[in-house]
Amino acid sequence: MTELAARGLEGWGLVGLAMGVWLAAGGAARLDPLARTGSLGFRLQLIPAGVLLWPWLLIRLARREAVPPAEVTAHRPRIGRPA
Fold first, then answer.
1. Coil, strand or helix: which one is 73?
2. In terms of DSSP H, where are the helices of 1-83?
3. Is the pTM of this model over 0.85?
4. Of 58, 45, 64, nearest to 19 (Cα)?
5. Contact between residue 47 and residue 24 where contact means Cβ atoms under 8 Å apart
6. Is residue 16 exposed (0-12), middle (13-18) or buried (19+ Cβ within 10 Å)?
7. How far is the C-alpha of 38 from the C-alpha of 50, rounded, in Å?
8. In Å, what is the CA distance from 31 to each residue of 1, 49, 61, 70?
9. Is 68 in contact with 32 (CB distance < 8 Å)?
10. How confident is the model at residue 64 (pLDDT cuts 50, 70, 90)?
11. SS3 call for 26
12. Sign of the C-alpha dihedral, residues 39, 40, 45, 46?
């Protein structure tokens, strides 16, 4: 059972590492146009983010969402909804 869990984490990490490297190499621009102007430090921070969040990133890629979701707070209500 422990070996199975270790293999699962290993697989998660390998897929995530591949996703993180892809993001840092320029794939982030497909998810957010503002990422094209990111510095080297920003790109290096994308690698651990890709390791942890790769399922969510793949869903966004599959949906072809090129624009990040709009921020919705008490000060910025959702468009089309009364303030």
1. coil
2. 2-22, 28-31, 40-62
3. no
4. 58
5. yes
6. buried
7. 16
8. 37, 14, 7, 13
9. yes
10. confident
11. helix
12. positive
* Averaged confidence pLDDT in the chain: 82
Question: Each residue of 43-72: b (16+ CB within 10 Å) or e?
Answer: beebbebbbebbeebeebeeeeeeeeeeee
What digits encode the pLDDT tens for the residues 35-57?
A: 888 888 988 898 998 889 889 88
Please, are residues 30 and 61 in contact by the beta-carbon 8 Å criterion? yes
Q: Which residues contact 32 (CB under 8 A, 6 or more apart)?
A: 67, 68
